[in-house]
Amino acid sequence: MGAMSTTDEAEQIAPAAAGGPPMTFDGDQVVFELDDLSCYYGDFRAVREISLQVPKNKITALIGPSGCGKSTLLRSFNRMNDLVDTAHITGSVRYHGVDLYADGVDPVEVRRRIGMVFQKPNPFPKSIYDNVAFGPRIAGYRGNMDELVEQSLRRAAIWDEVKDKLKSPGTALSGGQQQRLCIARAIAVEPDVILMDEPCSALDPIATLKIEELMRELRENYTIVIVTHNMQQAARASNFTAFLTMGEDRAGYLVEMAATEELFTRPANRITEDYITGRFG
Amino acid sequence: MTAHTASRPNALTPADLQIGAGRRRRERAIGALFLAAAASSIVISAAIIITLAGNALNFVVQVDPGKLVTDGWFPRRGLYDLATPIVGTLVISGIAMAVATPLGIGAGIYLSEYAGRRSRKILKPIIELLASIPSVVLGFFALAWISPNIVQALFDAPLFNMLAAGIAVGILITPLVASVAEDAMHAVPEYLREASYGLGARRRTTSIQVVVPAAVSGIVAALILGVSRAIGETMIVSMVAGATGGSLFNLNPLDQGQTMTAAMTALAIGSDQVRGAALTFESLYFLGFLLFLMTFGLNLISDAFVRRVRRKY
Amino acid sequence: MAAQSEALSARDLVARRLQGGGSDWRSWVLEGALLLSLLVAIGILFVLVSDVLMKAFPVLVERPLDFLTSTVSARAERAGIIQAIIGSVTITLIVAALAIPIGVGAAIYLEEYARDSRLSRFIRTNIRNLAGVPAIVYGLLGLAVFSTALGLGSVLLAGGLTLAVLVLPIVVITTSEALIAVPTSIREAAFGVGATRWETIRSHVLPYAAPGIFTGTILSLGRAFGETAPLLMVGAIAGTFSFVGAPWEQLGEGYTTLPTIVYHWAGYPQAEFRALGAAAIVVLLGVILLVNATAIVLRNRYDRKW
Ligand SMILES: Nc1ncnc2c1ncn2[C@@H]1O[C@H](COP(=O)(O)OP(=O)(O)O)[C@@H](O)[C@H]1O
Ligand SMILES: [Mg+2]
After folding, report:
1. All chains having 3 or more CB pairs closer than 8 angstroms to chain C
2. With bands split at pLDDT 50, 70 and 90, how would you rate the model's confidence at C73?
3. Does one domain contain both B172 and B57?
4. β-strands A223-227, A59-63: how paired?
């Protein structure tokens, strides 16, 4: 970190040094801690040497241009990338202190604790009830399933809209409702973290606002990491924002991470400033 | 850093990130079961190659080379003129392709380029139905209808003849050729057609000068696959081509002839089998191995053509 | 000067095209020829069915029940297909019991479990090649392995095993296609809530792919039902015999099947036997038609978009 250059080229070439010291949190507030994380698809490095921390019960937004590796990074948080044949990582992702990629860690349990909401709403082609009950059922939930389903749907702010048609297919709902159903499905397994990959990109503005409002409520109980290409959304809905972009090798890297307000008003880095003011590219 | 993390009150251990032992065991067992199922295909292939090659080798080692080039295929008398069943197979496959090429490709082009959605929905199942007619039924039809009503009506020919067999085999493989050719033309991207129409071309020009050339690899693949299927077809030729008791070398489609497959059924059901005539069993496998190699080679070539289409689009 | 006349003729050309689309006889000839090739193919099916029905008419009208319940006989007026029906049904059951679980399991391995490794690529290529091996070669395999090496002899069980092996690659390929058609988003959704691979497959992938898998397997059973050549290699009797018993009693006995008996009767030149063969074909085609109709109905009902 010593020899920090201020020229533009230096910023392009030495991105790790660009954002100043990485943002850190108190030990018991850290949910994720990434150390030099690189993600590969075969030989192609999609994400390069990212180190950052994600704080508890906050909303952390990942922003950056399309293709810079936001989804890849997010999917390394719950080992969703394991599903891609060629994907592998170097460096480490610690979750409450445990290296998620260590031997003996089962990605199935990882995903149970770290839920995910996808870009395109993807309810199972089954009833609304079964959509929510599937996760708890396979996890061996012993309590009252009806109650759990209702509670999850309530927390996802969709109970009132679906309580009379729990047996009808989840795929018959509107896009925004489907996405909230997917959120209910994710929280039914009592996760600790919810990862959201551009959850509103397929929704209209009103449905989008509903989801953002829901996210603020969920923050009380969950740690949320959201990928968005919509900067207003990041500004509106998140506590912290990490800005990624990609270098000439097309690998995404972290430019800087800061409190959201700080990043949008006083970006520490020229590249960030260019991006958030629309002068990017 | 690590020491610091470990001392956190809320720190997890790797053991927290595991699923129950029962669930994990079940998961492993099921995965192993599926792998075994997939591996069974390797066992089957190995068994095919070993049994065919082994017995074929026995034939090659034991047979008197002079008996491989004689006047005809008469295993009963120890005469194994290879040219007889091979040429018979080629004659019948040639006739079959003469039938299936225009019918199959014509039907394929029509289905892909001309038929509307509605008529496709009716025509395709009919073609599929035609494809699922057992070959023994077509053999019966060739004997009971094609031979007397077409071949014998036009030519001076016996009831059992290679022409009737070839026509029936052609009918058998027409749906196959049609559907593979149609798939190939279907894979031609819409923008090529639109570009052609955009230049003011008609449907005729578009389909013949744009779509067919673009799909030519797939169409060739369809024809090669057709040849492969024709060579391996057994029931029709056994029933219609005659020559169940061996045959003289014959090139004339209006006469009876021997094919590799028909020679094999004849050997197997015993009309040619003579106890003690040592090499009948081995000659059966020799023909089988030959047939296997021929169709395998053709299928590989056809596959290569199909892959060329996929690479292009 | 030349340029002007060219321009004129170009205009003529355009005008002619705009007006006279219908007078383009070459297009009509081509479309007619293409349609004709399709219609010839379909027409053959029509001729075949009507010829068979006509030839089968005497048997179907005079002694339909007797034909279905009698054993094969050298006397045409007493011959029937009960043994063939029992044989074909039993063999199809054996094929279903073996080829469906193994084939579906193999496809699940290839599409859901296997990484893109050399082994999985080899298995895939291998299965594609197996699907292209002529049916009669499977008969040779059955003869060498089931009848001879395992010592089963020329019995129904050997026939069933042989056809199960023949149908297996087709089941794998059709099941694979059905599995590939399942959208990845469904799998991601299930994995995302902490489902294991098998839980994902059982609860979401298989139900979604079920109509496709069912269509594929039923068509391959239809294929086994109509197969003849390999069975001739492993002892299906194209002749007369007297044994008749329940399916489980058949396993270790000599046997025949519907297509085998068609082959047998087609070999006689007499019209009475032709009629028997045609009547057996009517039954055989009836089953095939049923199989195809089921497949079409299933496909139309479940051809949904995600
Ligand atoms: N399954 C995959 N296989 C290979 N490359 C991939 C795969 N998924 C994404 N990539 C590549 O990784 C890079 C980052 O993609 P992604 O994480 O989806 O970016 P973002 O979400 O920021 O748009 C892109 O160059 C993309 O092409
Ligand atoms: Mg993305």
Report:
1. A, B
2. confident
3. no
4. parallel
Q: How far is the CA of A69 from the centre of ligand 2 (A)?
A: 7
Of C185, C192, C199, the CB nearest to A138: C199
Asked if B142 and B40 sit in the same domain, the reply is: no
Residues B147 and B252 in one domain: yes
Which atom belonging to ligand 1 lies closest to the Cα atom of A75?
Answer: 17
Q: Cβ A189–C194 below 8 Å, yes or no? A: yes
Tell whether B292 is covered by a domain: yes
Please tell me whether residue A195 adopts helix, strand or coil conformation: strand
Amino acid A63: pLDDT: 95
Beta bridge mates, A245: A253
Given a contact cutoff of 8 angstroms between Cβ atoms, the answer to whether A222 and A236 are in contact is no
Is residue A43 scored above 70 in pLDDT? yes
**Residue A223 dihedral angles phi and psi, to the nearest 5°:** -90, 130
Per-residue confidence (pLDDT) for residue A1, from 0 to 100: 37
B5 lies in some domain: no
Q: How many Cβ atoms from other residues are within 10 Å of residue C75's Cβ?
A: 8
For A211-280, give the DSSP string. HHHHHHHHTTT-EEEEE-S-HHHHHHH-SEEEEEEE-TTS-EEEEEEEEHHHHHHS-SSHHHHHHHTT--
Indicate if B261 and B226 belong to the same structural domain: yes
Q: Would you call B295 and C133 a contact, using CB atoms and an 8 Å cutoff?
A: yes
Q: Which two tokens stand for residue A166?
A: 């729990």
Contact criterion met (CB below 8 Å) for B180 and B221: yes
Residue ranges lining ligand 1, Cβ < 6 Å: A 41, 46, 66-72, 84, 250
* Residue A122 to residue C194, Cβ atoms within 8 A: no
Torsion angle in degrees (nearest 10) through CA of C119, C125, C131, C134: -110
Task: Evaluate whether C68 touches C261 at the Cβ level (below 8 Å).
Answer: no
Q: Domain limits at B150?
A: 68-309
Structural domain includes residue B122: yes
What pLDDT score was predicted for residue C54? Answer: 95
Identify the residue whose C-alpha is closest to ligand 1 atom 5. Answer: A41
pLDDT tens for residues A51-81? 999 999 999 999 999 999 999 999 999 999 9
Q: Are residues B39 and B116 in the same domain?
A: no
Interface residue B194 vs chain C (CB under 8 A):
no
Q: Over the stretch C187-238, which tens digit does the pLDDT of each residue have?
A: 999 999 999 999 999 999 999 999 999 999 999 999 999 999 999 999 888 8
pLDDT surpassing 70 at residue B184: yes
Q: Closest chain B residue to C274 measured between Cα atoms?
A: B144
CA B93, B97, B102 angle in degrees (round to 5)? 170
**Is residue B132 pLDDT above 70, yes or no?**
yes
Q: Which two tokens stand for residue B252?
A: 């004339």
Of the candidate ranges A4-8, A60-64, A127-131, C194-198, the one whose mean pLDDT is the lowest: A4-8
Residues B193 and B45 in one domain: no
- What digits encode the pLDDT tens for the residues C106-141? 999 999 999 988 999 999 999 999 999 999 999 999
Strand, coil or helix: what is A32? strand
Do the Cβ atoms of C193 and A118 come within 8 Å? Answer: no
Query: What top-level class would CATH report for the domain C64-302?
Result: mainly alpha
DSSP state of A22: P
Domain count, chain B: 2
Nearest CA to ligand 1 atom 21: A71
Whether residues B77 and B39 share a domain: the answer is no
Chain CA centroid to CA A238, Å: 11
* Ligand 1 pocket mutation pick from A71, A197, A254 by most atoms within 8 angstroms of CB: A71
In this prediction, residue C2 carries a pLDDT of 47
pLDDT, one tens digit per residue, over C44-58 is 999 999 999 999 999
B182 touches chain C (CB under 8 A): no
User: Which among C191, C193, C199 has CB closest to A185?
Assistant: C193
Question: Does B8 fall in a domain?
Answer: no
